[in-house]
Amino acid sequence: MYLNRFYKINSTFNYVSLHFRRFLGTQNVNRVALYFQRARLIDSIRLALRSSSSDNLVTYLENPSLDSFVVTKALQSAPSPESALNLIECLKK
Questions:
Q1: How much is the CA Rg of the chain, to the nearest whole Å?
Q2: How far is residue 72 CA from its own chain's centroid?
Q3: Residue 43 has pLDDT above 90, yes or no
Q4: Which residues contact 73 (CB under 8 A, 6 or more apart)?
């Protein structure tokens, strides 16, 4: 009897959380739009690494679409090894 109630509550919770996650996440974009979004973010990080101010870099690192792919490509396109180390240090914070 109690187990049946638990399964109903659990299935309702799973249904609601599934739809809630769908609307909470980033926009539903296709692969081409995701590619261009990542490319813009990588380019912005690369340009911020060229400048001496780390404040610009922090704003880009707080972007919700930052993932391991973007970080890897940003490290590969860093203008110097020192700027790549600066990016790693900013990510550690």
A1: 20
A2: 12
A3: yes
A4: 38, 42
